[in-house]
Design goal:
- The complex is a heterodimer.
- Chain A is of the alpha/beta class.
- Chain A has one domain (38-396): Metal-dependent hydrolases (TIM Barrel), CATH 3.20.20.
- Chain A has helices at 19-22, 24-32, 53-56, 63-76, 96-99, 113-128, 149-168, 185-195, 220-229, 252-273, 276-279, 293-308, 320-324, 340-349, 352-355, 371-374, 381-396, and strands at residues 2-3, 12-13, 41-46, 132-136, 174-179, 201-207, 233-236, 285-288, 328-330, 356-357.
- Chain A has an eight-stranded parallel β-sheet.
- Chain B has helices spanning 19-22, 24-32, 53-56, 63-72, 96-99, 111-123, 144-162, 180-190, 215-224, 247-268, 271-274, 289-303, 315-319, 335-344, 347-350, 366-369, 376-390; strands at 2-3, 12-13, 41-46, 127-131, 169-174, 196-202, 227-231, 280-283, 323-325, 351-352.
- Chain B has a single domain, classed as TIM Barrel (Alpha-Beta Barrel), CATH 3.20.20.
- Classes of the chains: A alpha/beta, B alpha/beta.
- The A-B interface holds A 2-6, 63, 67-68, 70-72, 74-77, 80-83, 85-87, 89, 91-92, 98, 145-150, 241-242, 244, 246-252, 255 and B 1-6, 63, 66-68, 70-72, 74-77, 79-80, 82-85, 87, 89, 91-92, 95, 97-98, 140-145, 206, 236-237, 239, 241-246, 250.
Chain lengths: 413, 394
């Protein structure tokens, strides 16, 4: 494949691509830091489900949506998804994005996209020393903006079935929190009912990029169903350049900086102020892919507002920051701040030692390796291990996946 | 290529596309109606300029923009142009979209020109104004420098590589209506080039067209006798349009909606008084929206004329001096209604026919020719006479 550069002379021509080679330094890091001593859980990684629409579309129930989707993919070569401007690969500098389709695997064949993705996931998990990963889709993160609710419902259900049957049921190291078609609360409820007992389903997911009020009464039975089944609810953020506010920004970096925390801030504010933690005290919630810096801001801001206007949040029995420190958070993209005291204080504010869960976001452009956490100077060894795997293992009930003859666990690192 | 249907039995294969064959009935119509005896001008014909992005990108000035565009178009994703959900090909029902790339054309002509000429010959069209397709979505590109850079490149490519190749083809410069300097640059650099008849604003955008910064551009166009066209379209990413759940609904409402906004701003801010010789052309919204907006704006103006101090006439009177493209022509059961609309907008001198070929909902010349209430002169004018004057065709 030819990768264009600033001039034709500097164009790159690439003949092959291999995840293990790409992540050689990650493997070296894993060995040097002895990740083989403990379990690492990555609660947020991705695959490109849009590469496999031909396998997924036959799972669509609704015959009209199925035909439209299949025809559209075949004739126009496009998925039936809302499309985001794609500048994530920085004009080709992040080569794994365009090159991913060149990677070979022994299971590669038409109709075997799920097996191929599973092989690739195990490649990077082994390279990084990751024992379990929670695999999410990619373009579907923008599904919440789909103007056709019927399509969001039909496609997400098809994806969930395909994922459960073709990936989760076959590879115990890959888990997922399944997409809830949140623009239709009744269908979201049915999704919980249909899938919560399937192997590998460790929770359910709201993609945060959407215009939905999470306190809406119509969602209460969804939350109750999750609470009864002990399945955590995650909010996975993303960006949306096409809003009146974000359109003022002229660079992807700016949108990426603001839009991710913005959506999670919005939903977490609704969640707390409307007393959801009091109404569903046993429901665990997890906030993904917004980094951590926003939490230092939100804890202070909400406490201050609450103390001035508690009458507007009558269900609360303690400060917003106290509820915030009882939720779960993913680490990625961990801000590499100049002043590490700020980060340390943020870790403290959210009770990181018990609430923070490591995430790679691999293979997206800004992924983190486990050393992002392991090398932090202010954490003790136990805190590092909790964040890298222990907290997630407790939250999702994960056990080691391999033991030696003496019954001692063997870890991927 | 397989075109899947609701079941295997009804799916079918097609591997070749030939515009002349697709338009065989149009050719027949053209002969039956003797279009050879008149000058038919298509003011709205689209070329697939995105297929030529590799030729257009080198015209971009910024090396950063050039590299970005090359890289982003590498996989044919055309990601530099915002996408909205659309089912333009009706899930395979209109095969010309998927098969467009398979059509063979002579090598001595730009592909877009060769294809346009084929469609023109089939429809009985003498002259056509080529407008871009994919690039019209650039109005929603929040990275504004990209709109400026790519549109200037398109304009230069159009003036240098497309228009000189065929004396029957005309074109319009794309105005990146966020960046006043870039708009003015296109007009002053390329506005006098042969074949350039005006400038097109893609209406699906969030710009106040009466902003002071654009006045220089409009003045430069007025001096050169260039037409200012507002080309509307479907934009499902708009918050209001996002309330609609079918593509047909968006198609029905989005185009007249954006043109109504810009028309209202154009009138209430007295632009027709400030640029009395600048001709405006409103495209791809049909005609139904025009009289309703005329009545509505007149009514507002008569009760609150202090809001529009520059106006010397009623809004509808200015609108009667503007030009409108007929496509997609609305089809009321009661043709008397259409006749009344034609009268209200002075169709005989102000309406111009456009095909919008090869987009999903194109119109043939018979759409106008077969209207029973039009006089022979009116048909001649709408199908070509008026546009010939506007475009200064010989």
């Amino acid at each position: 494949m030819r990768l264009p550069s600033s001039s034709e002379i500097h164009d790159l021509s690439v003949a092959e691509f291999d995840t293990t080679t790409l992540l050689a330094h990650a493997s070296a890091q894993a060995r040097r830091r002895n990740y083989s001593d403990f379990m690492i859980v990555d609660i947020d990684s991705h695959h490109y489900e849009s590469d496999h629409v031909r396998e997924i579309y036959p799972y669509i129930d609704d015959p009209v949506v199925r035909q439209t989707a299949q025809s559209f993919a075949q004739t126009m070569g496009l998925p039936m998804f809302p499309q985001r401007g794609n500048e994530q690969d920085m004009a080709g500098r992040i080569t794994r994005s365009p090159l991913r389709r060149m990677e070979k695997s022994p299971v590669q064949a038409p109709g075997q996209g799920a097996a191929h993705d599973t092989t690739l996931a195990l490649r990077w998990m082994d390279a990084m020393g990751v024992d379990y990963t929670c695999l999410f889709p990619t373009p579907m993160l923008s599904f919440g903006l789909h103007p056709q609710v019927r399509v969001e419902v039909a496609l997400s259900k098809a994806y969930n079935r395909w994922l459960c049957e073709r990936i989760l049921a076959r590879q115990p190291r890959i888990k997922s929190m399944l997409y809830l078609p949140f623009n239709d609360p009744e269908e979201a409820y049915r999704t919980v009912e249909e899938f919560s007992e399937k192997p590998g389903v460790i929770g359910f997911l709201v993609t945060s990029v959407r215009f939905a009020a999470v306190y809406d009464d119509r969602y209460m039975k969804v939350y109750r169903a999750l609470e009864e089944r002990g399945k955590p609810l995650a909010f996975h953020s993303a960006y949306n350049w096409y809003t009146r506010d974000m359109e003022q920004l002229n660079r992807f970096i700016s949108v990426h900086a603001l839009s991710f925390p913005f959506y999670n801030m919005l939903h977490l504010t609704n969640w707390i102020i409307n007393g959801m933690p009091e109404r569903f005290p046993k429901l665990k919630t997890l906030w993904i892919e917004a980094g951590l810096a926003w939490l230092a801001f939100l804890t202070q801001r909400l406490d201050n507002e609450y103390m001035m206007r508690p009458s507007e949040a009558p269900l609360l029995k303690k400060l917003p920051s106290e509820y915030i420190s009882e939720q779960y958070y993913s680490t990625q993209p961990l801000e590499l701040v100049r002043n590490s005291k700020l980060m340390e204080a943020t870790f403290e504010a959210i009770s990181a030692e018990t609430q923070l869960c490591f995430a790679t976001d691999y293979p997206h452009w800004d992924f983190d390796l486990p050393n992002t956490i392991y090398d932090l100077p202010f954490l003790n060894e136990q805190a590092k291990r909790n964040i890298l795997g222990g907290n997630a293992a407790r939250l999702f009930g994960l056990q080691p996946w391999k033991w030696d003859e003496k019954g001692k666990p063997i870890y991927a690192g | 290529m397989e075109f899947p249907s609701s079941d295997r039995l009804h799916s079918f294969f097609a591997d070749q596309h030939d515009t002349s064959k697709v338009l065989a009935h149009a050719s027949l119509q053209a002969r039956q109606r003797n279009y050879a005896d008149m000058t038919v001008v298509d003011v709205d014909n689209h070329h697939d300029e995105a297929a030529a992005y590799r030729e257009i990108i080198p015209f971009m000035e910024s090396p950063v923009g050039r590299q970005m565009a090359r890289s982003l178009s590498n996989e044919g994703r055309r990601a530099m142009v915002p996408r909205t959900i659309s089912y333009e090909d009706g899930a395979g029902r209109m095969q010309r979209f998927a098969l467009a790339a398979t059509e063979k054309v002579p090598e001595n002509l730009p592909r877009g020109v060769a294809l346009a000429r084929r469609a023109m010959d089939a429809m009985g069209v003498k002259y056509a104004c080529l407008l871009p397709t994919t690039t019209l979505r650039l109005g929603m590109q929040p990275k504004r420098e990209f709109e400026s850079g790519l549109s200037l490149a398109y304009n230069r490519w159009l003036a240098e590589s497309v228009l000189p190749s065929d004396s029957r083809i005309r074109g319009m410069l794309y105005l990146p209506l966020y960046d006043a300097d870039a708009c003015l640059k296109s007009v002053t650099e390329l506005g006098d080039r042969p074949g350039v008849v005006g400038c097109v604003v893609t209406s699906a955008r969030y710009t106040t067209i009466h902003s002071e910064e654009f006045l220089k551009t409009f003045a430069a166009m007025e001096e050169r006798g260039l037409i200012l066209a507002f080309h509307s379209g479907a934009n499902w990413t708009d918050r209001t349009m996002g309330l609609l759940n079918t593509y047909s609904s968006v198609r029905a409402l989005s185009a007249p909606y954006f043109n109504s906004i810009h028309m209202t701003n154009w009138l209430m801010n007295g632009m027709p008084e400030r640029f009395p010789k600048l001709n405006t052309l409103w495209m791809e919204s049909g005609v139904g929206w025009i009289p309703s907006l005329m009545m509505r704006l007149d009514n507002e103006y008569l009760t609150r004329n202090f809001d529009a101090p520059l106006l010397k006439l009623k809004p509808s009177e200015y609108m009667q001096r503007m030009y409108f493209c007929s496509q997609p022509l609305d089809r009321p059961d009661d043709l008397g209604l259409l006749e009344a609309i034609f009268r209200a907008i002075r169709a005989e001198t102000q309406l111009v026919w456009g095909s919008n070929y090869p987009n999903a909902d194109f119109d043939l010349p018979s759409t106008i020719f077969d209207l029973p209430f039009l006089s022979a002169t009116a048909k001649l004018n709408i199908l070509g006479g008026t546009a010939a004057k506007l475009f200064r065709l010989n």
